Amino acid sequence: xxxxxxxxxxxxxxxxxxxxxxxxxxxxxxxxxxxxxxxxxxxxxxxxxxxxxxxxxxxxxxxxxxxxxxxxxxxxxxxxxxxxxxxxxxxxxxxxxxxxxxxxxxxxxxxxxxxxxxxxxxxxxxxxxxxxxxxx
Length: 136
Prior knowledge:
By secondary structure, this protein is α+β, with helices and mostly antiparallel strands. It has helices at residues 12-21, 33-38, 83-98, 114-119, and strands at 3-6, 42-48, 53-61, 66-74, 104-107. It has a five-stranded mixed beta sheet with strand order 1-2-3-4-5, sandwiched between helices. Strand 3 (53-61) and strand 4 form a beta hairpin. The longest helix is centred in the middle third of the chain and has 16 residues, at 83-98. This is N-acetyltransferase.
């Protein structure tokens, strides 16, 4: 099955559909997602040859030196075909275009995605990633 990658940020509806398809329905404050997506530096959506939405990814950051890959999702029934790799490579190409010199690109990965990112040259080297979620 062939897929088409389009360089654009997913819509809030596309984002939610894909996030929920992989069990991330409770990971987002959905009221904030439209503004969050609008603040993206770049992104991609993936459709299969039947036009079905099957993947997405986006990048946030300052648009000059710091970039963070976010929300890379491939529908479970399309996983294992290399689409995650294609999404990350497409996002990386967009970042290289935006910042042709040196830049820092980071991400947080689920344990299931760790092998994918390492195969693409990502590493945790001597850095420790930390995060928190602020709630009302």
